[in-house]
C-alpha cells in the first residue's frame, strides 16, 4: 500500500492580527487559533489569490470559514468568519 505524504502539514500558517482580533467577537466565540491553523492545513494545493474556504468545524463545535492565500512565507489566513 502506497502512503501519500501530507504535504500541507509542512506549510507554515500565518494568522493575521485581524483574524486573531475577530476571535473575540460573539460570532467567532469558541474558535481558537489552533482551529484556524488546523483548517488552513486541510486546504489542498496552492491558493494564489485570497479565497474563502467554507465549512470548517472548531474543536468546540462552532462552524467557520476562513479567507486564505499563499505567500512566499507560507499560508496567510486573512480573516475568519463564524457561523
Q: Descriptors for this entry?
A:
83 residues; alpha+beta; four-stranded mixed β-sheet; 2 helices; 4 strands; globular; disordered N terminus
How many DSSP E strands?
4
Our count of helices gives: 2
Tell me, briefly, the overall form.
Answer: globular
- Stretches where pLDDT is under 50 for at least 5 consecutive residues are 1-8
Write down the secondary-structure element order. Answer: EHHEEE
Let me know the largest β-sheet: 4 strands, mixed
Q: Going across the major beta sheet, what is the strand order?
A: 1-4-3-2
Short description:
By secondary structure, the protein is of the alpha+beta class. It is built from two helices and four strands, in the order βααβββ. It is globular.
Characterise the protein shown here.
This protein is α+β, with helices and mostly antiparallel strands and 83 residues long. The protein is built from 2 helices and 4 strands. The longest helix has 10 residues, at 33-42.
Amino acid at each position: 500500500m502506497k502512503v501519500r505524504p501530507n504535504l500541507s502539514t509542512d506549510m507554515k500558517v500565518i494568522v493575521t492580527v485581524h483574524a486573531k482580533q475577530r476571535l473575540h467577537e460573539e460570532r467567532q466565540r469558541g474558535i481558537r487559533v489552533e482551529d484556524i491553523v488546523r483548517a488552513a492545513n486541510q486546504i489542498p494545493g496552492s491558493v494564489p489569490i485570497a479565497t474563502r474556504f467554507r465549512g470548517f468545524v472548531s474543536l468546540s463545535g462552532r462552524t467557520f470559514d476562513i479567507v486564505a492565500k499563499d505567500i512566499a512565507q507560507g499560508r496567510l489566513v486573512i480573516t475568519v468568519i463564524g457561523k
